[in-house]
Amino acid sequence: MDIFDMNCMLGPTRTDREPAFRTPEALLSEMDRLGIAEALVYASHGVMGHPAEGNAWVVEATADHPRLHPCWAVLPPGTGELPEPEELVAQMRAHGVRAARMFPVAHSFPLLERILRPLLRALAGARIPLILDNGRGSWSHLTDWREVFTIAEAHPGLPLVLAREGGTTARALFGVWDV
Question: How far apart are CA 88 and CA 73, in angstroms?
Fold first, then answer.
């Protein structure tokens, strides 16, 4: 069986609380050790620094490594920090970026469909998965589940992934999942 890891961070961290793979080669070595065939990779700087710089870096860092697939950190539109949603999606496609990752806690913004709507529409239209990442905190304490459900219902064509969710989220999620 081929294993595809969708939760890999590349680059140094500020805290060293978790293993950091500073180079693609270090990550690939660990993937080989664990039997992981390919990985979706986001830049540590895209979380702990600025998404635009981290996104450019992860594209360059993964360019010569076909087993590593870049993932971009995204922000709510309208601030000018990243291109407007349609242009962002065009740039993602041009650079072979197949997924986006959002860090509402680390980047200090509320997870609200209303402020994210143009970005969510653009990602859904391109069928680019959006990974929501609340970091190390508990989803049950950090998330207004009504907004997660609103996003999912308002954008049914958007592949939505909750990263780092744990067992306590079952109470919020299991009852609303279509079987």
Answer: 11
What pTM, to 2 d.p., does this model score? Answer: 0.89
User: What is the crossing angle of helices 145-154 and 113-126, to 10°?
Assistant: 40
Task: Give residue 146's pLDDT.
Answer: 83
Rounded Cα distance, 125 and 158, in Å: 8
Q: Tell me the H-state helices in 35-144.
A: 44-48, 51-62, 85-94, 113-126, 139-142
pLDDT surpasses 70 at 172: no
Please state, in angstroms and rounded to a whole number, the distance separating the CA atoms of residues 5 and 69.
Answer: 10
Cα distances (angstroms) measured from residue 16 to each of 22, 44, 46, 104:
11, 11, 16, 21
Rounded CA-CA distance 132/33 in Å is 28
DSSP state of 141: H
**What distance in Å separates the CA atoms of residue 60 and residue 173, rounded to the nearest whole number?**
37
- The kind and range of the H/E element at 42 are strand 38-43
pLDDT band of residue 164 (cuts 50, 70, 90) is confident
